Amino acid sequence: MPEITIDGKKIEFAQGMTILEAARSVGGDLVPPTMCYYSKLKDTGGYCRTCIVKVESESVKNPRALPKPVASCRTLAQDGMVVKNQTSPEIQEARAGIVEFLLINHPLDCPVCDQAGECSLQDLGYEHGKMNTRYEFERREFPQKDIGDKIKLHMNRCILCYRCVKTADQITDGRVHGVCSRGDVAEISTYIEKAIDNDFSGNIIDVCPVGALTDRTFRFKSRVWFTKPVDAHRNCDKCCGKVRLWYKGEEILRVTARKDMYGEVEEWICNECRFEKKRTTDWQIEGPSQIDRHSVISANHYRTPAMKKDLSNMILNSGIDASVSSADLTDKA
Amino acid sequence: MAKKILFEHIDKPGIRHLEAYRQHGGYKAVEKALQAMSPAEVVSEVITSGLRGRGGAGFQTGTKWNFLAKPEGVPRYLVCNADESEPGTFKDRYLMEKIPHMLIEGMIVSSFALGVNTAYIYIRGEYFYLYNIMEEAIAEAYKAGWLGQNICNSGYNLELHMHIGAGAYICGEETALLESLEGKRGNPRIKPPFPAVAGLYGCPTVVNNVETIAAVPYIVNFGGEHYASIGIGKSTGTKLISASGHIKKPGVYEIELGLPVEEFIYSDEYCGGIRNDNELKAVVAGGSSVPILPKDLILKTADGHPRLMSYESMADGGFTTGTMLGSGGFIVMDHTTSIVTNLHTFARFYHHESCGQCSPCREGTGWMEKILHKILDGHGTLSDIDLLWDIQAGIEGKTICALGDAAAWPVASAIRHFRAEFESYIKDPAASRTFSHYDEKYKVHNVDAQS
């Protein structure tokens, strides 16, 4: 098997994998962050430049260093390639610069944004950003556009990752939205304010890394970290029917697709499952979702197996009445 | 008189039309190539000639042609990049306006060499009047049998199409050009794959500049070795230079590569010196995106040799003390020019023309323009200069296409060489706006501070 070295760690990969895919195959800190790449879609990536890495040696055959940092999501891994991500201060600095660029025109309205808590840009800013902004001009604003009664487009928050455009191209029958205009006034828009309406259009909400596309049926209902995710399924003739329900108390506030550790959906779901099935009786409940990446949700409300042990230890060792049942802990949301 | 290749017959009456062009030896290269040479021989002549891409990057044309993938059963394309939109460059316009058949002849010979049966000329939207001239010339060529089926009874067929862009600078980037030609949004593609493997409609494609293709007939007629004997070192042949700015005789000049810059600016044959006999301040030597150089560095390299109009000599010293020949857009500034104002104009241009695809360029170009605007308005602070430097460093080399670099280099070089002027503008904006900025101190370039 060909081998690539990322941050000093040797990784075996299959021919045709990108640097990012090779890194994700082992996981951990050496995986570059991404904003526009989406493994479930074709031809994504290359736009946001957050996943840039330094290539110190291109391959066994051609051991020269590349003069510029490359986008790891679009660069094929080669045998004998030596890549630096976390270990290169230059890349860390460049990435911080890119986060700064992404944030200068972002409205930073996280307090009222439905995406807050599960926003890739928040995570990126927290992990790789700078302490303060040097931008002192007015932030860019777009007029609000109505794209239908189910999906809310908030263009000011958009980082132009093109994921929703690719989703509409590859998952749905016809794409009615795209990128209009050029440069820093480029915007996601439907041509002449058309509604985005087809059976799978709701998936563009799930792929959006920021709060630019949000679920109108969930709008301002709750902060995501006050809802608790439960995996469920139903027999759906349009999609796989495997979803994640977000409960607050007894009420299902929203339905999303199940996402993996990189925040990417596992299987696409249809609009009927997403927007219309909001009663527990519509679903067969599988159990609490395992969420590790956005720990704010799982830590407050869920006991993953590891936590359960910690909690029982805590309870036993602190001498608190151990009669508190596990059910009490889980269900009080 | 220096050697003229492209401009030899440019002033002959009626040269725009086929009849006169033919009288002056036009289409001889087509006859020679199609009847007496094989495609591989044409390619090898171009390789021998050492011809380099005239669009800006200066890549060896023969090597580029050699890279073209040749899978069975897949068409190949030749696309001529006539989307000449680099500020300060207007050579292709002149060539197409005056002598359109030269480009068509070059297209036929190049297409033959590459085994291409469908070729395109992508012309920028603002050149709509040239579109008509070119269409007329192509119609003439079709009528006379230089295009179409069985050209010169050689059995070779070529269809040549014109396509007019919609006026976006980014469509001069070869992959954005191909996207635009396919009818899509003009966003640069992520490379690899390069056009030589998957270009227009996913097929192997060569994209060449107008001037490059127009030089091919001469190479076929007189041989690659003869062409290589013109010029200096690896910069062979002649180059069209679009001279503009504060010179006595702005215009398009054909120079033999290797001409000293000093001679080009001051001799009567070319620019004729600085207007009103003012003092030379700075030169942008290859179109707005290449680094600006102050007088002492453009006339002489850092180690004291005279700087020549050639790819190597212009790049001497890297970006610290050198620049690039680029597309040959030679913008001369005299001592009354404000570098800050000039830089703002460039920054505004790149802000307007960024395609918005990748984040550093989309956000950074606008930010730089806003800061420069603030400085021009008299509200600048000294830390803004460092911020500008950081922003350009954050863009350079981190974008999909070269527009990011093109936006970053002018800012970097202006700060590198003219930092003092930025400082004086910030400290006393009112005086800076009325007073001519030329000062002895600008001759001492500020290399160490920012390299």
Structural class of chain A: alpha+beta
Order of strands across the main sheet of chain B: 3-4-2-1-5
% residues in beta strands of chain A = 15-25%
Which descriptor suits the 3D outline of chain B?
A: globular
**Low-pLDDT regions of chain B:** 436-451
Summarize the amount of helix of chain B as a percent range.
40-55%
Mean pLDDT over the full residue set of chain B: 92
**Number of H- or I-type helical stretches of chain B:** 19
Radius of gyration of chain A over alpha carbons?
A: 22 Å
Low-confidence stretches of chain A: 300-308, 319-333
Oligomer: heterodimer
In what range is the share of β-strand residues of chain B? Answer: 5-15%
Q: Quick one: biggest sheet of chain A?
A: 5 strands, mixed
What is the structural class of chain B?
alpha/beta
Distance between the termini of chain B: 41 Å
How are the strands of the biggest sheet of chain A laid out side by side? 2-1-5-3-4
Overall residue-averaged pLDDT value of chain A? 87
Topology, number of strands of chain A? 13
User: How many beta-strand runs of chain B?
Assistant: 14
- Tell me the span between the first and last alpha carbons of chain A: 48 Å
